[in-house]
Amino acid sequence: xxxxxxxxxxxxxxxxxxxxxxxxxxxxxxxxxxxxxxxxxxxxxxxxxxxxxxxxxxxxxxxxxxxxxxxxxxxxxxxxxxxxxxxxxxxxxxxxxxxxxxxxxxxxxxxxxxxxxxxxxxxxxxxxxxxxxxxxxxxxxxxxxxxxxxxxxxxxxxxxxxxxxxxxxxxxxxxxxxxxxxxxxxxxxxxxxxxxxxxxxxxxxxxxxxxxxxxxxxxxxxxxxxxxxxxxxxxxxxxxxxxxxxxxxxxxxxxxxxxxxxxxxxxxxxxxxxxxxxxxxxxxxxxxxxxxxxxxxxxxxxxxxxxxxxxxxxxxxxxxxxxxxxxxxxxxxxxxxxxxxxxxxxxxxxxxxxxxxxxxxxxxxxxxx
Length: 369
Known about the structure:
About 75% of the residues lie in helices and about 0% in strands. By secondary structure, the protein is an all-alpha fold.
């Protein structure tokens, strides 16, 4: 075992070398492919508002578990043995979370313990980073403290039964999500690494877009492949491709550092964006099975995704594009009252028009009025 294989955490923020996602990070993402698929199944099998709330309530901690590791790795990842020994058990914890979501009423305790375990490992990583990187200590101490308070509440939830248990989860998640916001002053001294962070969030968007394709395949697999079902499936995949184009055509690295507020809005906006894209895929799956219904399960999440893309443009100072995205979201939302066979072509047309608009602009127009 060489000394290079055991390294203390170090700041990665100001390194001149071009930085890409490591193989460990890609392995970490792999378990979230499974977790997102399990969450999509929860939404597909859920009934009404209760099913939607269950899906959202479980998606938030899964996404935050992923984001927590991403932010730590962005600043301190050395990909040495000690880092791997803290990261690999987190993969096991997330796998346990994924195994719990399909029967959350019976496995809520396992879900809580698994999430708490992933967060404890992250807290240990931050404490270790604070010990070895003195300039990062004010930030790591606040992260470790806030996340530890949330972990205590997650574990305390085991003492009560649902739905009281879920209420404690909600409180803990608020603390978890608010902790970085309350540490904004210290984040300014240790800004994110601009190449690495957009790539990592882009990879998660790829994961949720993949779930749209998976939902279409499941929808076609479970029903007769009639011309109508095939057209709905193709339209769903085409709209997903439109979302891919709109997102990755403007994955702006500079937004991460533009202002702390803009950067944090950009980061947190990926939560509703991911929710919307997964829900859109499940909406297409339902539309294949029930083409005569209204298109709320398709149009509402599509509108949410477009609205988030508009907000991200505003964070990138693309004001005109942002307003156009938000207007497109309003149009798509209005289509939720229409039958699926009418709404899907309309949504596809809106997405295609957005892509055409982007292609018609010069590259320098992104930051314009």
